[in-house]
């Protein structure tokens, strides 16, 4: 009788079914066989190295759940469907009697319903796709040219930075045909498609169920020059399925958290997730707008925690802009992530794109990218089509951010995030529609050079000083005349002249043209049979730094 009374407040009905999937939170990790001093037992070398490079300590949240606790819960539950070491919790399937016994265990803190147990999945039979010489539509990027060009991503790629050495996790509802599609041949042939995971069915095959994740991945990883090239075509990728097909319940947020932990354990650098949660089949579990404060919802808390493990988390804002809900969803309210809204080709907010701010008043989305009529790959053959949604704006930006980070692998996730935000076209006047605007990735590239200080040493023996619109450059010179060329990020010459100087030390001044576009510029000085290069970042006066919550 006591057990029935205890459970009456946490059992919920869905149609004729009653919730029988619960998230069980534990009290501690006492007496664990694992230690933060032996991280190699639960983290990959890549994950450990990522933390080391960014000065991030391994802490108790990294330690796996106490296996003795898991063993006792498994002995009482019908089934364990997942777990989270960060949240110190377990997803169990249990009836009322079983749940009562689990709650009575001394290390159990609480239990809450998250779903009705289902086992729906669509099998995957890879189709025969004949490899052929596809027909180019012109240009290197093909159908991807607009979504890359909107962010000046082609300028970054032209410098050779396309995501090399970076690892990206893509979390979605299914990835049909990623294992056979020609759009991902370069990933498979070059060993850049890492082992994926299905968190819903607890196996290693995410290439099934639905094709949404396939389309998402294509905006980043596709590489068929002349037909379709993505925003991070040289990075490595892995796919994680976290959505339960045929239902919508908070258990999917728990699978998402587990997916983040899997990505972290592999050593992922960037995560894209084109998912969001507001309303559920179990309506009593719906989120409210006041919950979107970055702290209330478990998935949002996990997203912030993942960022502070050294990963850059990119999340779609949602497609509720024209609906009753209107605003963002979980986990896009999380702190320290990049929430991405959808823009049109003209740089305006797409009507369906969810709006901010968060419940506690933070700017959301932070940035926006093309989300209306975005190019995505079909799951069959060589077909490219257009689709709408923040689902595609998010990975378009995520792949671009990955390429940017590959140019500066020594930087932290926070450095990259801030540079992307600061490069937004409405950085000085953010709003709840596009956030800080559409990033200029070439501009962000310049920001990360840290060349916006008024006085800075660059190459040995060369200095640059900026006073209002006059730039003064000092450099070593052992010849009477030194040719100077000022070039933009694409190598186009903006200005050129010769400097006459003696005494072994050269100096010249250059007045910045009024119409000079913001961006990254280089002074090439031919002196002493070598080229001295001095860098300059031109940006509007009085630009503010990123406001941190």
How confident is the prediction overall: mean pLDDT?
Answer: 88
Overall 3D shape: globular
The CATH class designation of the largest domain is Alpha Beta
Give the strand content. Answer: 15-25%
- Overall tally of structural domains: 3
CATH architecture of the largest domain: 3-Layer(aba) Sandwich
Helix count equals 13
Could you give a short account of the major beta sheet? 7 strands, parallel
- Per the CATH scheme, the topology name of the largest domain is Rossmann fold
State the fourth-level CATH superfamily of the largest domain: Peptidase S8/S53 domain
Total number of strands: 25
Helix content bin: 10-25%
Roughly how many Å apart are the termini? 48 Å
Short descriptors:
about 550 residues, alpha/beta, Alpha-Beta Plaits, Rossmann fold, Immunoglobulin-like, 4-stranded antiparallel β-sheet, about 20% helix, disordered N terminus, disordered C terminus
Summarize, please.
The protein is built from 13 helices and 25 strands.
Topology diagram in text:
Blueprint: H1 2-7, E1 13-14, E2 17-18, E3 21-26, H2 45-54, H3 67-76, E4 79-84, E5 89-93, H4 96-103, E6 108-115, H5 145-149, H6 153-158, E7 167-172, H7 185-189, E8 197-198, H8 212-221, E9 223-224, E10 228-229, E11 236-241, H9 251-266, E12 270-273, H10 298-307, E13 312-316, E14 338-343, E15 367-370, E16 374-377, E17 384-387, H11 390-407, H12 413-422, H13 441-447, E18 455-457, E19 463-467, E20 470-476, E21 481-488, E22 493-500, E23 505-511, E24 519-527, E25 530-538
Parallel strand pairs: 7-11, 7-12, 8-11, 12-13, 13-14, 14-15
Antiparallel strand pairs: 1-2, 3-5, 3-6, 4-5, 9-10, 16-17, 18-19, 19-20, 20-23, 21-22, 21-24, 24-25
